[in-house]
TrEMBL record, chains A, B:
Organism: Rubellimicrobium rubrum
GO cellular component annotations of the record: cytoplasm
Keywords: Hydrolase, Pyridine nucleotide biosynthesis, Pyridoxal phosphate
Gene: kynU
Residues that bind pyridoxal 5'-phosphate: 85-86, 113-116, 155, 184, 187, 209, 239, 265
Required cofactor names: pyridoxal 5'-phosphate
GO biological process: anthranilate metabolic process; L-kynurenine catabolic process; L-tryptophan catabolic process to kynurenine; NAD+ biosynthetic process; quinolinate biosynthetic process
Source species, domain of life: Bacteria
Protein name: Kynureninase
Gene Ontology MF terms in the entry: kynureninase activity; pyridoxal phosphate binding
Amino acid sequence: MTDFSATRALFDLPPDLIYLDGNSLGPLPKAAPARMEQAMREEWGAMLIGGWNKAGWMEQPRALGDRIGRLIGAEPGHTVVGDTLSIKVFQALAACVEMRPDRRVILSDTGNFPSDLYMAEGLIRMLGGRHELRLVDPEAVEDAITEELAAILITEVDYRTGRRHDMPRLTAKAHAVGALTIWDLAHSAGALPVEVGRGGADFACGCTYKYLNAGPGAPAFIYVAPRHAGRAVPALSGWLGHRAPFAFEPSYRAGDGIDRMRVGTPPVLALAALDAALDVWDTVDMATLRQESLRLTDRFIAGVEAACPELEVVTPREHDRRGSQVSFRHPEGYAAMQALIARGVVGDFRAPDIMRFGVTPLFIDEADIDRAITIIGAVMNERLYDAPLYRTRSAVT
Amino acid sequence: MTDFSATRALFDLPPDLIYLDGNSLGPLPKAAPARMEQAMREEWGAMLIGGWNKAGWMEQPRALGDRIGRLIGAEPGHTVVGDTLSIKVFQALAACVEMRPDRRVILSDTGNFPSDLYMAEGLIRMLGGRHELRLVDPEAVEDAITEELAAILITEVDYRTGRRHDMPRLTAKAHAVGALTIWDLAHSAGALPVEVGRGGADFACGCTYKYLNAGPGAPAFIYVAPRHAGRAVPALSGWLGHRAPFAFEPSYRAGDGIDRMRVGTPPVLALAALDAALDVWDTVDMATLRQESLRLTDRFIAGVEAACPELEVVTPREHDRRGSQVSFRHPEGYAAMQALIARGVVGDFRAPDIMRFGVTPLFIDEADIDRAITIIGAVMNERLYDAPLYRTRSAVT
């Protein structure tokens, strides 16, 4: 069991703010600045180059990977941290394509996060344009899984709608036709229990700055199923994926298992923040988290619907078909979200008309949900968003 | 002019340590922990998702890129920070190969840092194995520049020997035969004045954790010459290299100029440390730095040679043929370096027999050099390294 009033106390949140955007950028864990200062002063400052050995910097990508691995149901020793999610998607895709040399199609859906699609486009270009990135509607993915496919590249939880794909089902279908699976867990890791191991995922990757709360631009992670760990060829064959990085050999030899998915020097300072963020997660039971997330999102959906019928719920209502965010559609969504933010309810907007709210039990409770509903009701019903101030678009929306 | 006693005061160095390893990992700038705490508490903690706009996180990779750009002679607006050096080398290589579709050879030398070679190997593999990575001895590079080449991939200053290639000369020769140039500045940026613009470099990249002192695993940078900025196709086409990242378009459109070399979400916390590290550099005149570096390295070479004739100098003596490190060869190099470290003289060892010392005027002065010479003399002449303790290899050497 997890005591969520205890986890809430572990975050530094501005007073009077209802932060429903932890699905975009998680808040600051209270312990993170001290952990960072320790990494800077006691490790970097005092140990200097010796930190690679004395502070264990070199091993952190795997150690932290395993702590994330617990949250996503990965077998120990098969998850590693580094780079950005786009880079990790690229590595997974390139490995899949190489493992299915006679197949030419990568399947994804129109709800996938664009960077995943861009990386696939770029890879296909590099491979000579002989492959096809086939995009179908999210609801059509299952039927589109055919023997043409090298791999499916699917984000489990849709960044706009919060709709959740059925990982075990799609994975089983992909395997039945001989295709591999890549699961992007950007909106899953820390949002709900994931079972990459039991679910049969071949590759999975995600970021750590959303539900995992490791800070803006925190590094990504990648999981490779044990059965592929020694076979998946690393596309970005950097020295830290080499079997013996410090032998400085002239030719690349892939490292053991997940190590080969490492590329360059680990981002030690960013890993210190991730370390502190994962300390919070080490106290969390994922089943309890899910229960609380569903209780709060049910309450939020019902409350907002009752308060403002003009907001169309686009997130599926069925529990097993959604993640931990709730999205609504409204033609004035952009201005409405600005008006909400001005009143201390922070969600975000995704073009063309989606208002997104992340519900994160680690620091959001029932009182927050109820207060958010009241404020959303007032902003929508009294058209408080109808002011030029709220219509000015900022650079990053 | 630069006052190096003033810059020295800007670093937090352990007392009684002569740190001659700033060419591997620079020391902690005193201002960095406070800058980091500000980024964590005042930006991430207080602004949360609003930090992307309010704190300008999204623009930092270019702003910091330009501050590095001054140190390497780049035209403003053509350097960007992100990822690791291996990733940036990959991007530069992929762009070159695409710009020279009728050419099949990438030239590098056996003194290059292995990760650069590994990334080239991996790229060639992905491109179908039709290209060749041709390795020649460093001294043979110039003669090996022929019309077969798509690009030369050269690290300006050799990580083991400190030997420096002649960038303008090799670049001119490459251009004369229609080849492009990629300069790895890992051991150049912050070590000596570099002129990528006037020198004609097509692409350049480097890391920020060595001479630039931005911390362990700090992000890399890449420069693309203005004449290629709008034509170089980005190999790793992530969303932040897109022309309109927040339009979430289904297909990739390369961003303007250097922006297209961005891949994923910027590492904001790591950038805060880099920002503080570059504050020191903003006070430094590169010509003065070089003058002082040469004065100190000359003194170091002469002193060590006089004190211990058995240490063979492998760094070229001519000023224009070396960077800011001095390397010696000795069969007992590993143990000798451990013995030196135990006595407060920190350099490092590179297999099979190289003892490396970085001479970094920002925080190393004449008194340090003289004391280091005395200790090196004692360790070598009295064979103080001849103890089992010093022969045990650590994981990271």
